[in-house]
Amino acid sequence: MLGYNGTIFAYGQTSSGKTHTIMGQPDNPGVIQLALDDIFSTIESTPDREYLLQVSYLEIYNEKLHDLLVETGKAAPELRVYSDKNGMHIKDLKAEVVSSPAEILELVEKAQERRHVGETNMNERSSRSHTIFRIVVESREKVDADSAVSVSLLNIVDLAGSENAAQTGAKGERLFEGSNINKSLHTLSRVISQLSSEG
């Protein structure tokens, strides 16, 4: 809320509770709900600022990008990653302007229905993809229309779990998905290791 960017990862073996940690339950809120509670509490406590909130929801399935905010049955845009002087971007990723936690949670629920899941020996609803829920918070002082705009990004990442084919019993399509999941997790760990060692 102060102009800094942040990312939260749920990382671990398949069937270890990552999606549950992110999504939660009505009586046991997850990371998304807790983040929204904090964001809207801050908005209510700072009436001297005006806010603009946007959310997007990206899925990475078999190394391809899908927009989870695009309705099922419609032709989804071909998503590509590109970079410019302002950083990395995803072309044509939908950003929905939102104004309440309930509105955001409704979008999240619909997006989750579009996510790729499948059954394995270890989990009857195994996530077969990684997802990135992003909320962009823009704000500025109300009294000064020319004041600087503060922009913050919060990425909440639900990674598919690392898999051992012998344990999951994966074959065919599930084996192909598991191979891509493991490959991308290995690449991510190398990137994080490299970034942390450059301190």
UniProtKB/TrEMBL annotation:
The entry's keywords: ATP-binding, Coiled coil, Cytoplasm, Cytoskeleton, Motor protein, Nucleotide-binding
Q: Does the keyword Signal apply?
A: no
List the SMART domains: KISc
Gene Ontology process terms (BP): microtubule-based movement; mitotic cell cycle
Listed Pfam families: Kinesin
Taking the first listed entry, what is the main subcellular location of this protein, grouped into a coarse class? cytoplasm
- Please give the Gene Ontology molecular function terms for this protein: ATP binding; microtubule binding; microtubule motor activity
Q: Looking at the UniProt record for this protein, which Gene Ontology cellular component terms does it annotate, in alphabetical order? A: microtubule
Tell me the ranges covered by the Kinesin motor domain, including all copies: 1-199
Q: Which residues bind ATP?
A: 12-19
Q: Where in the cell is it found?
A: Cytoplasm, Cytoskeleton
- Could you confirm whether the keyword Coiled coil appears in this record? yes
The family note in this entry says: Belongs to the TRAFAC class myosin-kinesin ATPase superfamily. Kinesin family.
Protein name per Swiss-Prot or TrEMBL? Kinesin motor domain-containing protein
Q: What lineage, starting at the top, does this entry show?
A: Eukaryota, Metazoa, Ecdysozoa, Nematoda, Chromadorea
